[in-house]
Amino acid sequence: MSKQSYRRQYYLKKTGIALAVAATVASVQAQEAPADASMSTVVVTGFRASLNSAMNVKKNSDGIVDVIKAEDIAKFPDANLAESLQRVPGVSLARGDGGEGKQISVRGLSAGFTRVRINGIEAVSATGASDINGSTNRSRAFDFSVFASELFNSLEVRKTSQADIEEGSLGATVDLRAARPFDFKGETITLGAQQTYNTLAHRSAPRVTALYSNRWETGIGRVGFLISGAYSKRDATEEGYEAVELLSADADGGFCSPAGQVPQSPATQATKGVTPTACGFNLPRTSTTAAYNDVFGRRDNYGGTSANPVAGSGAFHPRIPRYRRSIAKYERAGVTGAFQWRPKAGTELNLDLLGGDFKNDRYDNYISAISFGRSLAAANGKPQTSILESSFNNNGSWEYGKFNGVDVRSEGLIDVNNTEFRQHVFSGTHQVSDTVKVDFMSGISRSTLDSPMRATVQLDSPNANDFSFDFRNNRNVPALNFGVDVANPANFTWGPVDADGTVHGQFVGRKLLTGNRLKTNAVNASWEVNDNLTLRTGLSARENTWNNFEVSSGAPNGLPNPAGFQMSSVTRIISDFGRGLEGSGYPSQWVAVDLDKFRNVWDIECHCDAVSGSQYQTLNQTNRRVREKINALYLSADFNYDIGPVALRGNAGVRAAETKTNAAALVNAGGALTEIGFDTKYRDYLPALNLTAQLPRDVFLRFSAGKTLSRPEYVDLAPSAAVNTQAQTVNIGNPNLAPIRAKTYDLQAEWYYDKNAMVSLGVFHKDIDTYIQSVGERVPYNTLGLPDALLTGGGCSITGGTPACPTLPGSIVTVRRGVNTPGGPLTGFEFNLQTPFSFLPGIWSNFGLLANYTHVRSTISYITRTATATLPQLSMEANLVGMSPDAGNLTLYYEDPKFSARVSAAHRSKYLFNVLGDVNGHDYTFVDASTNLDFSMSYNITPQLRVSLEGSNLTDEPLRYGRDSQRNDTLLYAHSGRTFALGMSYKF
To answer: What percent of the chain has pLDDT over 90?
Structure first.
């Protein structure tokens, strides 16, 4: 039975915040508008008008669709589109580094289950991030932080399947539309500027937008041209605490036992200075018997997987307890272009262009205790550390510990990430006759993440005494006493490893290039048989290519120091740490490496023979590719009939899709890079039905049913292995994975009870036939069939030399690989309310309310240990990973002809990040519930000129990852401050 317990909270959430800095008119051209409506244009001005326009689209759709329209030209009132989308019922936001919205989940299904189409074709964006926040996005999930929201004027979230909509989504299909010139009546020019300020970063940054659109009547028909652009900078600072991992006391050889303790730990070893009275050179056995027995008297059978739990297996400590300050510099630029030509009524050609560049340079600094994650053989770690004091709370969490012989580390990291997105789409429609119409589309989306440098330098202060971690006054951020003055450069060292294995610093480097290219060609035809029936058919050919290349450098053996070297010449001071963190006991400053100064002494980024260890380890590179070819055909029928007072409309059809996949990788085979590849093929037939009954009094009843699929992640398909020798983990790809398939059902009632007002209630169910999960098990590395060369990065030794590699061929490692497992049901309901207070007198009629709430339940069977010759398979049932059982939005707004204001709250409940199954002593990793509060206001000085003020994350909501539902240990806690923006926009 699961230890996880969820409190169901009823929160109403809304994220349509603030105003952004552009202004004007936004409208969306109804897709495939009839020829006789070619001259009409829907103009959207103001927040109420945008709500009404979006409501009309929802009302006239056949499936379950939610829409957001920009309230003005080139203006969504959010930093990026993810933050705009979180106001849609059932959509929850996942925030990345610096607190900005990054990805979305829909109805409990994480970002990988949601397909994003831009201007009609699928798109994927790759970005970089810190390791604890998911690291590089190598998945199918779309990262919305690439684009400024001002580049688009319509967001549509389709939650049900339809035969003429491309398959691949289990959660939703999100359509983003950029503006076109025929959306506007004539020449349109808008300009906007904004200055943002973050309270933790203490920096301001600009954001500007511009749009020009025009159209002309010519001798060859109507011609239109539009160009828009958006540019912004942002400085973000995050501060907090990380455990990196939670390990049992017995891991990595355990702690130093008291003198006279039987058995003695570690065993006597002259080369390490280990004797019955010492755990190393100048490291006497100072563990107190009471504290040591308190720790090692705790045992855990790891969910029944251990028949004889070892001493200390039930005491869990942070692997690398550390404070972090991250400073990120973001630069985002985007441009759209559109050309339209309508030579005659019923015929139109469109060319849509989109480009985006997103630069993310991150500077991380940590001050940490590194010993707790080191073995004796690898780096004289935990077995040389004595336990002086200990305390555990009632949940079994190790809340306080004091230690001698702890290695302290100052670590600095610079991560440079450049994302480039390019797209072009050529499309057209032609009315062949009064009843026959054809359309086509051809386009390519390409996203590339170039990360030319990720440099990490670590400075060590070995064997400090009186180190302590203390969670007793704050369960989120412990007070860490490092036992030495961490603000004194003289207390840190850099240099080669000592003969006994004492480490004095090391460096690590990485270069990464990953990207996606998605090509789509499609042609469709429709035949209006009569006023009640239209038949549709179409063909599409898609080719998706994913590439990932990574190569590392570095050495665990610090480089020799030049004559007269002093640590102060290559370091700087991190100061004023802990602003805004709860509790106390944090060092306000510590020594940090200055990479520019450091490289003047040791140019570790030259990747040359002149600097030992800087060379790229090309034989151990990650180099993999997945190519998909997807051919699809659909047949469907649109119908509408009046049955008494009920108007019944909808569509029914089937989509047939064939997927051919080639997954390949370069592997190190005997010192030579050799390509291996695998081919798979599968076919799916996906029926879909959407019914809408329009009842009297403007009540709509909708029902949808269908089969759908979500293809495996590229990184899970690639036949390669990723080995983390420090964490002793191995991830292996599985090119034979089958897609996740599901049957889906939706029932929704909507009542448009007044002008611009609507209330709806819906239920949904997804029967997930099969699921893909990463299954972990602990096995010796040398049983995996992988080369030992993957362990020797950085020049370490696996044969007894110095320094020894952290992971040896016989080491027990945690292996994770994707497998198809039984799925499970997902059921939920949605409530949505949109109501202007027009029924109130006077000024109160200018107010209005938006509210929605979604509750989801799921039961997925997770394999927590695969069967072996001697052990049975273990599994447990839990919620879907990434699913918040409760999510909601609430927005209260006011708008009159000159002044507009909104305050919004967005809530999502606690959700699972990983299902671990107690195999290593933890059942889950989870993300705590969060509620984000934002506001915006604007004033029209003239009909053309507007000023605005916005505020986001007003409560400085933190991000917290917890480990194990019973102990609730903190894995990560970080906050990023509040952001305010003052802007002005002008429309010509």
So the answer is: 64
- Other Cβ atoms less than 10 A from the Cβ of 594: the count is 17
pLDDT computed for residue 341 by the predictor = 97
Q: Give the integer Cα–Cα distance in Å for 396 and 385.
A: 22
Query: Residues 423-478: pLDDT tens digits?
Result: 999 999 999 999 999 999 999 999 999 999 999 999 999 999 999 999 999 989 99
Strand partners, 856: 828
pLDDT per residue over 832-851, tens digit each? 999 999 999 999 999 999 99
**Closest alpha carbon to 553 in 609, 637, 474, 599:** 609
- C-alpha angle with apex 711: 705 to 713, nearest 5 degrees? 140
Q: Give the global pTM.
A: 0.86
DSSP letter for each residue of 346-369 = TEEEEEEEEEEEEEEEEEEEEEEE
* Residue 299, CA atoms < 13 Å, CB-side half-sphere: 10
Find the distance separating the first CA and the last CA of the chain, reported in whole Å. Answer: 64
Query: Rounded to an integer, what distance in angstroms lies between the CA atom of residue 647 and that of residue 678?
Result: 52
- The b-or-e profile of 355-381 (16+ CB within 10 A means b, else e) is bbbbebbbbbbbbbbbbbbbbbbbbbb
Whether residue 266 is preceded by a cis peptide bond, meaning omega within 30 degrees of 0, is: yes
- Would you give the distance in Å from CA 150 to the centre of its chain? 22
**pLDDT computed for residue 97 by the predictor:** 65
Per-residue pLDDT tens for 603-619? 999 999 999 999 999 98
Structure tokens at 700: 């709509």
Q: Could you tell me the two tokens for 81?
A: 């589109």
CB 738 within 8 A of CB 771: no
Cα 612 to Cα 183, 603, 789, 804: the distances in Å are 61, 10, 18, 17
pLDDT at residue 869, rounded to an integer: 63
Task: Collect all residues with Cβ–Cβ distance below 8 Å to 218 and sequence separation of at least 6.
Answer: none
Mean pLDDT on 557-563: 86
How many CA atoms lie within 13 Å of 583's alpha carbon, on the beta-carbon side? 17
Q: Please list, residue by residue across 100-135, b when 16 or more beta carbons sit within 10 angstroms of its beta carbon and e when fewer do.
A: bbbbbbbbbbbbbbbbbbbbbbbbbbbbbbbebbbe
Tokens 């899709």 — which residue?
657
Contacts of 531 (CB under 8 A, 6+ apart): none
pLDDT at 129: 66
Pairing of strands 172-177, 114-118: parallel
Residue 89 pLDDT: 87
How many C-beta atoms lie closer than 10 Å to residue 958's C-beta? 22
Residue 49 belongs to what H/E stretch? helix 46-60
Helix (H) or strand (E) holding 72: none
Token pair in block for residue 410: 């100052």
The 10s digit of each residue's pLDDT in 208-236 is 999 999 999 999 999 999 999 999 999 99
How far is it, in rounded angstroms, from Cα 501 to Cα 496? Answer: 10
Dig out the tokens for 337 from the structure: 């272009």
Pairing of strands 114-118, 246-248: unpaired
Structure tokens that stand for 552 in this block: 């590392």
| Band (50; pLDDT cuts 50, 70, 90) | confident
DSSP 838-869: TTS-GGGGGEEEEEEEEEEEE-EEEEEE---S
pLDDT digits (tens, 9 = 90+) for 624-643: 999 999 999 999 999 999 99
Compute CA distances 325 → 134, 390, 677, whole Å.
17, 28, 42
Give residue 197's identity as a one-letter amino acid code: Y
The rounded Cα 513 to chain-centroid distance in angstroms is: 18
d(CA 787, CA 785): 7
- CA nearest 29: which of 74, 64, 69, 76? 69
pLDDT of residue 404: 98
d(CA 540, CA 519) in angstroms, rounded, equals 10
